[in-house]
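Exercise 7.
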Amino acid sequence: MNKFKYLSIAVLLLIISACTPSQEAKLEPSSSQANTADTTNIEPASKAVNGKVNQKGWEVSATGVKYAGQIIKGEYRTYEAAEVWTVVSVTVKNTSSKRQREDNAWFTLLLSELVDSKGNKYDYKDREIKYDTDLLSKPFSPGEARSVDFLFDTPKGIKADKFIIKDKDFKSISLKL
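Solution. The predicted structure, written as tokens, is:
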């Protein structure tokens, strides 16, 4: 009986040691780090822009573009790109005189795209909300504006040209960057 007791303890220790990373493993780069794009020469350049559209009680404006490198530490989490992040800052404002919800607006930001100077299109991969998350389920008050950073995983060295949003009929609306 004692043989089985010691055997089960030995198996348990073997399993625990197999699941615990060694000090050597901590020093070597992971496969995702070994295959990362070279971002040593990327400067987080930022450019103010003012492409906007104002319709039916809402204003959507692209307020900035930033080339941020491969890793962005956001307010709530860290974002890692396969290549580099191109970040487009967008502000949505209620221009009507009444409270209204964004989900009843004439536009949708969930299908947003970035177009570079060569005409290549990129879907956004993530977004960083720049306002109190308690407001997510609340309507916009008259004159209230909320900002979001859209993160696009793009090749190094692109030049952002347009931010594309869709209306409720899925027609593209282009904001110049």
